[in-house]
User: Fold these one by one.
Assistant:
Number 1:
Amino acid sequence: MRDAFGEEVHYSAAADRLHGRLLLTGYHGDKVWDRDTPSPYLTPDIKRGDISGLALTEFRLRAGFINCPVPFWSARNIEDINGISRSDAMSPWDVGGDYSRPICRRIVESIGVPREAFGVAKSFASQWISLAELDISAGSRQDFSDFLRSHRRTFLGRGRIPPGMFESLDRALMEAAYAVGGALVKMPGFYRMGFNDWPVARALAGLRFPNPPHTPLVIGPKRYMFAWAMSRAVCQYSRIVDPS
């Protein structure tokens, strides 16, 4: 699943403005307000379609604000809401297609916003940094390198190659794993034969199983960014609790 990879990083630019405030967001709105929400989601037991908003967790705790996803205010009445969206009375605001949210559109159009100005297609501001090269500042990159070096003895003590010692080798192995994995997952019968359960095969099929932690074949240091980030977050929490 996505959403736990810093996807909401764009909010960091507003950290100072968010401190001590309530942020209204629209997470889960695709289920609550969409006209064509599938029937399995139309239940009083809130059923999520994804884990959107999860990436805000650590940032929200550090910046000191409350995330209030508005769709959850009435999520247990989703079946009634969907019934209103599909009613004849709301048909003037049903634009058809795969992105029709009549209730939202009626509210916004009623205050004068033209139809063509919003809600014509599904879009988002989130950054899927897990699917691309992570562009971090020079200072953060250096700090990450220092973090890896500080744990080299731990890796050596466990008979493992410390990440970051051979960056060119790391990069070559990663590229080879993705290239071979991309070819293997397209081979007829690959999954039917159960090869995807083998550790080495899972490492090679990197596009589907990125960086398995138990596989020595892929040793790229990028997978340790989460541990590095958490260690730095703990330091920030301690400063918030005890500013001295």
Note: The two ends are 39 Å apart (CA to CA).
Number 2:
Amino acid sequence: MKLITSVSFIALSVQVFSQEKPAYRVFTSEGKRADYTEMMKEISKADIVFFGELHDNPVAHWLELEVTRSLFKEKGKNLVLGAEMFESDNQLLVDEYFQGVYDASKFEAEVKLWKNYKTDYKPLVEFARENALPFIATNVPRRYASLVSRKGFEGLEDLSPEAKKYFPPLPFPYDPEVKCYKEMLKMAGMGKDTSHVNLNFPKAQAVKDASMAHFILQNWSKGKVFLHFNGSYHSRNFEGIIWYLNKHNPALKIATIEAVQQDEIESVAKENNDIATFIIAIPASMTRTY
């Protein structure tokens, strides 16, 4: 009897401790299970690929680098990288660093870098530099986004011609009914009446989206793949940056990857269905980078 009990306990222990602990799962927009190879095969057909990241998630950042490497193997010099995390007025610094004008310490001292640059974005920048790939600073300078938040798009009108090089030509379209901008107003109003909320709040997001679309289009040409890294909100539901791209060129083939956190990752949470071409589900218990 003791032997049977011991064997049963061992069998149960093996069953419990042999469960897999995957760091992520890949799903299609319809919620069907996919894998990394299937995802790469599909997105490599696109003109522009968006990786909507979770800024503080190490799995998302690791996958960004892996996706970059995989696309480079497929596309070689026809790959272009770009990122929200670099503002358009820093493009000269990026270009000079890639040309060897100065070393990394000087570059990092002068360019506006996010606090997690060294762990999360430097590997992407260095990969581009080492392989002579363009790396495009696509975001509007934050001072101009702040200006829009205070004064609306009209605040940009009085800027100098030099300043206006760092965002798309005025006037650019804006639709407050686009879901992501409506949601921003609701968030600002804590879900209540938004009549007292600053209506320029989502416009500050829109000038970022419009700018990123503008600089993506300036640096993409037929036959190339532009891989863009941004916070998930900028490309979720094919809105944000993509809304602006479609305004300019609806014929573009666009693929999106969206990183999401879930308590369990064996299936896609209902709220995460259809938000992207591929959904990367990551355990909510995953360590954060900051």
Note: The domain at 21-144+211-283 is CATH 3.40.50.11550 (Rossmann fold).
Number 3:
Amino acid sequence: MKVVVLGYGSIGSRHARILKNNLKIKNIFIFSKQKIKKYKSFSSLAEIKKIKPNYVVIANNTRSHFFYLKYLENNFKNIIILVEKPLFHRRLPLRIKNNKVFVGYNMRFHPVIRFLKEKLLKDKIIDIKMIANSYLPNWRKKIKYYKCYSAHKKLGGGVILDLSHELDLANWLFGKIKVNYSLHGKFSKLKINTEDTLKLYGKIKKSNFSLDLSYYSHVEIRKILVNTEKNSIYADISNNFLIIKGNNLSKKINYSSFNIDSTYIDQHKAILFNKNKKILCDYKSAVKLQKLIEFIKKNKGKH
């Protein structure tokens, strides 16, 4: 198998490391202007045709995704492509017919999320609360936060795109989101020109739904709280545990040995070896999510 990784930033280097160390793939090629000792690298896009890869991971900045995916679709047939999330920086038309395309919403493979998906959501849900608050300067150790794509609107940054995992998880776990009200913009003093917060309220089926995303919280939180007619479920994604409480019920499930790399490992295994393939985010689902993201970005207030 020959694998090409487009981009060698924090996420591109992670994919390369996991494919080499965990999936034992030897033929890994990196498209980057950097000089890379660990892998074979190239800086001319035309070189991909000579390599003839089976699998391509698009891990450049979000704004570049459309260009590279279109190039691959127009120049290759029957290869597998993984596009890092989000799909594009804005809604763009691209029909995929020559290749298989998946989008990197790897948090679907988190054990807490899988438990919610498989075992807990059979009761009638009253309300759902999702929070993902973090501090952008802590995200990447090797680059100043104001230099990364997350800080720049023209590169596809901002919490709505960057933290779109939560929108994907809401859709995947519970169903289609109907937005009733949203507030987003830049409220902190971070050196960025993108939105640093999103507060969204709406409905999923007949359940109340709220979402809170931010770039500026020094207390990092990532959690889901689901109240059903029978139980309350607290899912702490940052600390890898669930608490389930109800009448005569109190249970805690820990995933203390979990490492975030496992979500990427399982995602690659699903793509390449059809293991738990139903968990993957396919191109069609990502396009639908892109429509929702576009709607939120273009609208504020009541809808």
Note: The first strand starts at residue 2 and ends at 6.
